[in-house]
Design brief:
heterodimer, A: 480 residues, alpha+beta, ten-stranded mixed β-sheet, 39% helix, elongated, B: 491 residues, alpha/beta, Amidase signature (AS) enzymes, 16 helices, 11 strands, 12% strand
Chain lengths: 480, 491
């Protein structure tokens, strides 16, 4: 029996506002517990919420970015439940009329690109954080309300994803768009982007959807993929054994690599949603929405296309440079100054990124400006510098901050194309391998590389590669 | 001992004439509370020291020639479901026993900015849920006109305080009639402003879409003074709105001849006490004598309003009262082991029977499977009631109706009969469903000496019109103080 999965994602993106959704408290991460609170977010008796305009603007920006319809009138609702980290006993969210609906994003996974529709996008406030006893001896649950009231954008995709890899790609693309728009920093470790996944498994080709499990606590891209794989395996095994999965909520346990059912449909809480009487409907002006749409930055899909069209990059390099907007911007400044942009892309994404990573640095604090890197790359393109020496020169540039010219000159790494010098290295290389020379001359021409390599080493990497190769070939031929 | 003037206007005149000094008059007021309130039970908390200090400070400003505002030195009582920083705010509930808020309601801050002195927090039915003040968790309030009777509710403490001359004005709150019904029982003028005209910031929510803070005083002019001080948009309350220009007090004496008042004749069939009915008819005659035309009109059935109100108010209350969970402030059940136990024992022990009844009803009407039949339907009915009401007001300038079916009833009389208690609000809830302004005012006293009140309902922004009608009706005169309190005045 063959099964297939149907997956939908539900994201909670923390909007990059300075203050909370309904009060003026700071949203800064990492403050001491319960220091960023006020009567409003503490749910003191008699306080009232006032919606944060910046949060609305950011949510509208993202909605426009994914082509969703922003509703001119959306409404607030209360979701009622009791929990110590929910001070009011209800969460203010949007229910009947969300901020926006529809839209889609293009997701590429395993070489296939598909449009994944979105169902709805709405604003809500976050709850606080409960820290339950973890170590032996700890008996109390502690509540930190700093996060309580932080603005969230909930994004719900259609159940249109088919594989864990595709879900991973969808989440990654969503995160990238959030970052490009400046809507959310996308930091899953800090919890500013969280993901739940709904997954059901059915017989391949079956029309109807099966009962779904909502998997929670997916706090990294990798967890999404692993948790979905585990849950799909669990449901498939159940189906294969003649069972039927039931609607449930499960928690991903990354340490054990398994999903654990928290509650089933019968145990699902009744949230008693009703319109929030403390907040009038959110009425958005068409012109305001249009102005936000007009100011949208270039989005990832457009940037990938442009990188390929303008600079002739392969899709892989375009994707890598798009995934890190700062790296992409760096590359483009280099590309404007060199003749071979695809080669520059390769150098930037591998040599430069690798060298920075070894130093624990990001592209944002790269000491070598794109303008300074360009001359180095131009030397490679002109055949004046080997790739090996170029990497060494880059290391020295990062270390000293000196320009490429100075380093190449001072360290004697300028390429040698003097025919006599090259001939001397070639002669020495051949002399060192008499047996191989004889074999070559006997027809084993595949040994050419051995002599080239040896001669290059003797030159300290400085010999002009093409001329060296020609010299080796000539030298071995002339002794016949 | 100098007598405290009976009205805010009288007080301010005497103050401007230099006939009274604030420390003295506030001191007298506090002394009077000390003497009378042990019987009446109007106050839950008297701000003795704070009020005396404010009086000293205000008098010093006056002596320097400053003008601290139109309410300078006026002693005002504030219902205890309105937050005043640094003073206990209990909403009449054990669940908030010991709770001291750290912020002040906008309406109170504005009263103070106008120079008023808040002298204490008044008793109420727990979380404003009730019509007699008997559901206060701490003690009942007695009607100054007859201590065997209730003052009405839920702003019964505010009403009793003003009626007994313990304060010159008070803030109450009105979710279904809670300033108007006690005003009727205690012979006061009370304005339920239009929804949103006064910020709710700092009002401990009962039914958020219905709640409004309103002034209670002895005359229409005093209500206008208080309303002017507290009204206006507030950035902390997204449902607040511009309340138009302040009421011009001079205009209250203006002409009302030629105005048309609608009278919902069918309402008088709803079990109205004969004496109340007779006074209501006399009130109509008095308006006619002032040149006002009385026109019979059709309005929504009061019982339909009451049912709609009960569903919506309780639904909102069930959610609004979820925050009282013992986790952060107020009462917390002792010696609990588990979370569920913390909730059930804190809420089970902290809330009184009426509050629990309403939380249960409200939770039910919002529950899956019942939401559509109750909450959603009630919301639609509310929209129709409002539309019918506004339509009726295209033909008339305001609507005249009884304030309550009966005068003040005896303590204990309706305590075991929730429906009889709810019927006290029969004629008042409509104004909360429509959100439009309404005013209750005294039209006479029964043979037994109990005050009888009537109501005027108006269209959007009609607070000034309603108070003008009341002002002309009463000739600007307050109802006489209860004999027992008036005698006490000059020992």
């Amino acid at each position: 029996m063959s099964y297939e999965a149907v997956i939908g994602l539900e994201l909670h993106a923390q909007l990059r506002t300075r203050s909370k959704m309904f009060c003026a408290c700071s949203t800064a991460f990492g403050a001491a517990p319960n220091t960023q609170v006020c009567p409003v977010c503490l749910g003191h008796p008699g306080v009232l919420p006032v919606a944060n305009r910046q949060a609305v603007e950011l949510a509208v920006r993202f909605s426009c970015a994914v082509g969703a319809r922003v509703n001119p009138v959306s409404t607030w609702a209360r979701k009622n439940y009791f929990y110590p980290d929910l001070p009011k006993g209800y969460q203010i969210t949007q229910y009947e009329r969300p901020l926006a609906a529809g839209g889609a994003l293009s997701v590429t996974s395993e070489g296939v690109t598909r449009e994944i529709p979105l169902v709805r996008l709405h604003l809500e406030e976050d709850a606080g954080r409960s820290r339950h006893p973890e170590r032996p001896g700890e008996t109390r649950t502690l509540v930190d309300l700093n996060r309580c009231g932080v603005p969230l954008l909930e994004i719900v995709s259609a159940p249109a994803l088919r594989t864990p890899a595709e879900a991973h790609a969808c989440l990654a693309e969503m995160r990238l768009i959030l970052r490009y728009c400046g809507v959310c920093d996308g930091d899953m470790e800090k919890g500013s982007l969280r993901c739940d996944a709904n997954v059901s498994v059915r017989r391949r080709g079956a029309g109807e959807l099966g009962e779904k499990t909502e998997v929670k606590n997916l706090n990294s891209l990798r967890s999404v993929e692993r948790a979905l794989a585990a849950e799909i395996a669990r449901q498939s095994a159940l189906l294969a054994a003649g069972g039927v999965p039931e609607t449930a909520t499960a928690l991903w346990d990354a340490a054990r690599g398994e999903t654990r059912v928290m509650r089933t449909k019968e145990e699902a809480p009744d949230y008693r949603y009703f319109p929030e009487p403390d907040l009038p409907p959110l009425v958005l002006d068409d012109a305001w929405i249009a102005a936000i749409r007009d100011r949208l930055p270039e989005l990832p899909a457009a940037r990938r296309e442009r990188l390929m069209a303008r600079w002739g990059l392969r899709s892989y390099d375009a994707a890598v440079l798009t995934a890190d907007p700062e790296l992409g911007a760096y590359f483009e400044r280099v590309a404007e100054r060199v003749g071979d942009a695809p080669a520059a892309a390769g150098f930037v994404t591998s040599a430069l990124v690798g060298a920075l990573r070894n130093r624990g640095r990001e592209i944002a604090d790269c000491p070598v400006a794109p303008e300074a890197l360009a001359p180095l790359l131009e030397r490679i393109t002109a055949g004046q510098l080997s790739h090996t020496l170029a990497k060494q020169a880059l290391e020295a540039m990062l270390e000293t901050g000196q320009p490429a010219e100075t380093i190449l000159h001072e360290r004697g790494w300028e390429q040698v194309d003097d025919a006599a010098a090259i001939a001397a290295w070639v002669a020495a290389a051949i002399a060192a391998h008499p047996a191989e020379a004889a074999a070559y001359r006997a027809g084993k021409t595949a040994l050419l590389g051995l002599f080239v390599g040896a001669a290059l080493r003797l030159s300290g990497g400085r010999a002009h590669p093409r001329r060296l190769q020609e010299a080796v070939r000539r030298a071995l031929a002339s002794r016949e | 001992m100098s007598a405290v003037p009976a009205t805010i206007e009288g007080f301010s005149g005497a103050r401007r004439a230099g006939e009274i000094r604030l420390p003295q008059v506030i001191g007298d007021c506090l002394d009077r509370i000390g003497r009378l309130d042990s019987e009446i039970g109007a106050f839950l908390h008297v701000m003795d020291d704070a009020a005396r200090r404010e009086a000293e400070a205000l008098q010093a400003r006056l002596d320097r020639g400053e003008e601290p505002g139109p309410l300078a030195g006026v002693p005002i009582a504030v219902k205890d479901n309105i937050s005043v920083a640094g003073h206990p705010t209990t909403a009449g509930s054990r669940i908030l026993e010991g709770f001291v808020p750290i912020y002040t309601a906008t309406a109170v801050a504005r009263l103070r900015a106008a120079g008023a002195i808040v002298i204490g927090k008044t008793n109420l039915d727990e979380f404003a849920m009730g019509s007699s003040n008997e559901f206060s968790a701490f003690r009942p309030t007695r009607n100054p006109y007859d201590p065997e009777r209730v003052p009405g509710g839920s702003s019964g403490g505010s009403a009793a305080a003003v009626a007994a001359g313990l304060a010159l004005g008070a803030l109450g709150t009105d979710t279904g009639g809670s300033v108007r019904q006690p005003a009727a029982f205690c012979g006061l003028v009370a304005l339920k402003p239009e929804y949103g005209a006064v910020s709710r910031y700092g009002l401990l929510a009962f039914g958020s879409s219905l709640d409004v803070i309103g002034p209670m005083a002895r005359t229409a002019s005093d209500c206008a003074l208080l309303f002017n001080a507290i009204a206006g948009p507030d950035p902390r309350d997204a449902t607040s709105r511009a309340a138009g220009t302040p009421i011009d007090l001079a205009s209250l004496g203006g002409e009302i001849a030629g105005l048309r008042l609608g009278v919902p004749a069918a309402w008088l069939a709803e079990g109205v006490d004969p004496e109340v009915r007779a006074h209501f008819e006399q009130a109509g005659e008095r308006f006619r004598s002032l040149g006002v035309a009385l026109v019979p009109i059709e309005l929504a059935e009061p019982s339909a309003c009451l049912a709609t109100y009960a569903i919506l108010a309780n639904a909102e209350a069930s959610s609004n009262l979820a925050r009282y969970d013992g986790v952060r402030y107020g009462y917390r059940a002792p010696r609990v082991e588990r979370l569920a136990e913390l909730y059930t024992r804190t809420r089970g022990g902290g809330f009184g029977p009426e509050v629990k009844r309403r939380i249960l009803l409200g939770t039910f009407v919002l529950s899956a499977g019942y939401y559509e039949a109750y909450y959603a339907k009630a919301s639609r009915v509310r929209t129709r009631i409002r539309a019918a009401y506004d339509a009726a007001l295209t033909a008339v300038d305001a609507i005249l109706a009884p304030a309550t079916p009966t005068p003040a009833f005896r303590l204990g009389e309706r305590l075991d009969d929730p429906v009889a208690m709810y019927l006290s609000d029969l004629f008042t809830v409509m104004a909360n469903l429509t959100g439009r302004p309404a005013v209750a005012f005294p039209v006479g006293r029964t043979r037994a000496g109990l005050p009888v009140g009537a109501q005027l309902f108006g269209g959007t922004g009609s607070e000034d019109l309603l108070l003008k009608l009341v002002h002309r009706f009463t000739g600007g005169e307050p109802l006489a103080l209860p004999e027992r309190c008036a005698q006490e005045e000059r020992p």
